[in-house]
Write a structure and sequence with these properties.
The chain has 4 helices and 2 strands. By secondary structure, it is mainly α. It has 2 domains: 37 residues; 45 residues, no CATH class. It has a two-stranded parallel ribbon. Helix 3 links the parallel strand 1 and strand 2. The model has no long low-confidence stretch (mean pLDDT 87).
Length: 93
């Protein structure tokens, strides 16, 4: 077994002890990223513009898209009459 990686790691640790700025950056930057991504960045997907293509046109299908809209994840921005109109309508958004 070769000890070369361990020797290089030891050399780098000695170098870090000499260079306080690099050591501070190695400790502070991950903590800043943790705080930033933990508290400031919100990755919840809300209010997606949605187009409804309701072929059934029954009370159950209307209740379905209304309940989806009530969750806050989707905003129904329109209704289309055929499958080809879905792409055209979404390109306009």
């Amino acid at each position: 077994m070769t000890f070369r990686p361990l020797i290089i790691a030891w050399k780098e640790l000695l170098q870090l002890r000499r260079d306080r700025l690099t050591l501070a950056m190695m400790v502070v930057l991950p903590i800043v990223q943790l705080l930033l991504f933990g508290y400031a960045v919100n990755t919840d997907v809300r209010h997606l513009p949605t187009v409804v293509y309701d072929q059934d046109r029954s009370a159950a299908s209307r209740d379905l898209w209304r309940s989806l809209e009530a969750t806050g994840f989707y905003d129904v921005v329109g209704h289309v009459e055929n499958y080809d109109a879905i792409g055209r309508r979404l390109r306009l958004l």
